[in-house]
């Protein structure tokens, strides 16, 4: 089972359920840890290669890596257990209409 929430996701193995000495059921969950992201700035036109370093990134056919930048998908170029590289998308354009009257 893969649990996905707003702030990340965790792969839960059904084989890891345990019973404590008190008889309580629990499970151990691993989660990704991000140690650095570079560069810390990029073009609004997209195309910047973003490198994310950390631990325990999960990337396989069943659970592919998903990265969002500014709420938009970042195209994953490479992914391993410790590094993800993706190409940033074009920043969304927010144009507000203004009408100043007559």
TrEMBL record:
Residues 33-92 form the IPT/TIG domain. The keyword Signal applies. SUPFAM superfamilies: E set domains (SSF81296). The keyword Thylakoid does not apply. Keywords: Signal. InterPro entries: Fibrocystin, Ig-like_fold, Ig_E-set, IPT_dom. It holds the Pfam family TIG. PANTHER family: FIBROCYSTIN-L ISOFORM 2 PRECURSOR-RELATED, POLYCYSTIC KIDNEY AND HEPATIC DISEASE 1 (AUTOSOMAL RECESSIVE)-LIKE 1. This is IPT/TIG domain-containing protein. It comes from Rotaria magnacalcarata.
